[in-house]
Amino acid sequence: NNARSEAESIILDANRQAADTKAKADKWATEIRTGATEFVESIMRNSDEVLSSNIAEIRKARQSLFGDNR
Length: 70
Known about the structure:
The protein has about 70 residues and is an all-alpha fold.
């Protein structure tokens, strides 16, 4: 009976540790996912701004070279 009680206690402790480890892993995964999403969004926003600026410069250069003749 004592061995059974000790085994149940060990199983309960193991289950608690497993649940704690899973909770930490889930939190860590969420933080990584959030960080990655924010990083990608920032890169895409910056790329959009740079490309838009470059397009504006190209159009301005084309306008100064060719005027409204096109």
